[in-house]
Amino acid sequence: MYLHQELTEKIIRCFYNVYNELGYGFLEKVYENDLLIELRNNGLSAESQFPIKVYYQEKEVGSYYADILVEGKVILELKAGDMEETILNHELQITNYLKATNYEVGLLLLFGTKPQVKRKIFTNDLK
Fold first, then answer.
1. Do 49 and 74 contact (CB within 8 A), yes or no?
2. Rg of the Cα trace of the chain?
3. Taking the chain, what is the end-to-end CA distance rounded to the nearest angstrom?
4. Helix (H) or strand (E) holding 118
5. Taking a C-beta distance cutoff of 8 angstroms, is the pair 115, 16 a contact?
């Protein structure tokens, strides 16, 4: 059993519901807005553009915004379009979000010609 498996399964179902309804070709923000509606319609709390601060030796050195935080447990990063050659970069991006926070699970959701889901885990004992 994976960490937050039941929750991530619900999120992935919501992702496919949005993808099956909209298909391919919209801007990332459209998918983000639709996924927020779908998540909330399925009884999940979801916060968009969740701020993430990065610290070095207790000094803030940068900040990012994760696309969506679900149930205060899972970070979602959404990408629109086909980008096979850059998937690794986006996987590293969500891994860095997990490193910079106390959250341990992230999903990279790709709204391309073929929908894809990449699951990332970075446990707190590694931080």
1. no
2. 14
3. 22
4. strand 116-121
5. yes
Instruction: Enter the tokens of residue 75.
Output: 């970070």
Contact indicator for 46, 73 with CB cutoff of 8 Å: no
Residues 6+ apart with CB under 8 A from 98: 75, 104, 105, 106, 120, 121, 122
CA distance 22 to 31: 8
Question: CA torsion angle for 79, 24, 83, 70 (degrees, to 10)?
Answer: 20
Asked if 38 contacts 17 with a C-beta cutoff of 8 angstroms, the reply is yes
Q: Does domain 5-126 have CATH number 3.40.50.150?
A: no
**Rounded Cα gap, residues 32 and 29, in angstroms:** 5
The predicted model scores a pTM of 0.91
Digit-coded pLDDT (tens) for 1-38: 789 999 999 999 999 999 999 999 999 999 999 999 99
